[in-house]
Amino acid sequence: MTTTEPNAGEERRGRHAKRNDEDRTADPADVERAPAHGADEDEPEPADDAPAEEEPAEEVPPQPRQEGPREERPEKRSSRHAIAHHPAGSCLLLSAGLLTGLALAPPVFDRLRFEVATRAADAARSAAAPWPAGGEPWFWPGSLAVLATVVAIVVLVIAAFGVRLPDLAVLAAALLLAVPAARAAWATLAVLDAHLWELVPLCIVCVAAFGSAVAAAFRWRSGQNPATGAGASEVVGVTLGAWLLVVLLFLGGSAIASSAQTHAFGNVTSPPQDVAGLLSVRAADAPQVRDLRRHWAAQVGAAQVHDDADASAYAVVHHDLTTKFPTLLARGDDVGEPGLHSSWWLSLAAQPFASSAEASAWCATSGVAGCTPRLITG
User: Fold this and answer.
1) CA-to-CA distance for 138 and 283, rounded, in angstroms?
2) How far apart are CA 318 and CA 271, in angstroms?
């Protein structure tokens, strides 16, 4: 008997379905219900003893970076420059040239041996350093004058050889010239108060040296400078120009003062005023006072000065003595006697004597009351 299975033409579903049903059509619902590894059952599994080969990752060639136009970086500039090529170089060289010219002016003018040059040398000694010019500076202390002169010489030598300096060294050199020169420039006020018109050219030199040094100090930072070489020609040019300016100012000022004294005042000079006036006369007479050292001299006048009024009064006394015979003005510390200090001012006859007796004999014939021998040991 033939038994016909109901629904024989329908597909077996669920747990009644067999894997080997070749004509089975997959139900989408069965796919969703099947475990995740069911899909891989038909794929051949690798042998246990064969290592799994990993597929190498595909290397991606590096993509070129899209960059905009590259900005050119400025080349690293050097912070060292020769003074001649430094922004502060011209001002620094001018200041150094003026100060060295001031230091060399007295010995140069002394060798010329004519009236205008002699007066120019006397004026220059009011600010010239004790070394190398042998001056008696009162525009500034002698130590500062020497310091400024030495620094100025060093600056000119370094600049001539083209030594490259950092910016800080240029700033230090400018300050070493500006600070002492400020003291000398300040003396301009004392010159004007004392009516020492013959020293006006000297004041111009000091003020110009101070101003140039200050300008150099403000320009101490260097920029990019393509210039090369030592710049010796620039150094020589600026230095000679500064020296020529010093010579013209001193000779021109002395010539004007000499002409005014001769024609306007009948060759009669007025006595200097204030302490600045005494200092100026002392500076001019300093070389001759030094010639009296280790000799006896005739002291024809003396006074102790405490203020400008005392100075003006003694300036009149000394001026009257100079109309009778050559007289030199010295300060107490120039003589070298322990009892005499800087507040004392002495008028000495410009003549050395070999002994006290000779100086006493001269005093007896001079007709000056209070004339006394004095041994100069300073």
Assistant:
1) 8
2) 8
**Measuring CA to CA, which residue among 216, 211, 214 is closest to residue 170?**
216
- Do 176 and 297 fall within a single domain? no
Domain assignment present for 44: no
Asked whether residue 86 falls in the same domain as residue 214, the answer is: yes
CA angle 366, 367, 371 (to 5 degrees): 75
- Looking at the fold, whether 202 and 235 belong to one and the same domain comes out as yes
End-to-end Cα distance, the chain = 166
Reported in sequence order, the residue ranges of 252-351 that DSSP labels E, i.e. its strands, are 295-304, 327-331, 344-349
Q: Are residues 298 and 363 in the same domain?
A: yes
Q: Are residues 166 and 292 in the same domain?
A: no
Q: Is 123 exposed, middle or buried (0-12, 13-18, 19+ CB in 10 A)?
A: buried
Can you give the residue range of the structural domain that contains 107? 80-264
Per residue in 195-250, pLDDT (tens digit) is: 898 999 999 999 999 999 999 999 999 876 665 556 789 899 999 999 999 999 99
Among 237, 264, 291, the domain boundary falls at 264
- For residues 133 and 249, state if they share a domain: yes
pLDDT at 40 (0 to 100): 45
232 and 324 belong to one structural domain: no
Residue 292's pLDDT band (cuts 50, 70, 90):
very high
pTM of the predicted structure, to 2 decimals:
0.76
Domain count, the chain: 2
Helix, strand, coil share of the chain (percent; to 5)? 55, 10, 35
pLDDT digits (tens, 9 = 90+) for 271-288: 889 999 999 999 999 999
Residue 266 — pLDDT band, cuts 50, 70, 90? low
Query: Coil, strand, or helix at residue 20?
Result: coil
